[in-house]
Input
Amino acid sequence: MAEAITSNTTEADSPWRESVAEATATDLENLLGTGVGAAQEQLERNGGFLPFALVVENDGEVRLVAVSPADASDGPDDDFDADSMIRDLTELLRQHREEIRAAAIVCDITLVEEDSDAIHVATEHRDGSVFAAVLPYQANRVTHEWEFGQLTADTNEPAVWVD
Output
C-alpha cells in the first residue's frame, strides 16, 4: 500500500471543473472514472490492487500503463514497495509525455484520520491542470463484499509535465 496520507478533502464535484477547459475536464474525468472503476474491479476480483497508470494518448485513446514490482521475485505473498512502483510509473509517464495529453496514477492508500483504506487517483493534463480524488473502502465482514464511501477531491501536484 502506498504511503499513508491524511485527508483534507472536499466534494469531488467542486468548482474545479469550471476552472479548466472543457476538453481538459473531460480527459481528467474520464481518467478518474476509469481509474476508480478498474481499481474497484481489481479489489473485487483479487482483494487488492497494485499501483497503475492510465493515459489519454494524443489521438484520444485511453491506455493502461503498468510496471512490475521491483521485489516481485521474493514471492507472490511478500510485500511490495508501492512507493517505488509509483516512482517508476511517474518516470515512465514523463519519458512518454510527448505522446500523451493526460495521465493518472491510481494507488491504494491509507487515510490515517479515517482509519480506512482508499483508492487514490491523481490526474494531470499537459496544460497544467491537476485533479485528484479518493474513494474510501472497506470489506464488510458479514457479506464479504467491498463497501465504498463517498468520492471526495484531494490535493495533487503535477508530476509528469514538470522539469
Remarks:
- The beta strands are 10-11, 52-57, 62-65, 100-111, 116-125, 130-139, 146-148, 152-154.
- The first strand starts at residue 10 and ends at 11.
- The chain is about 25% helix and 30% strand.
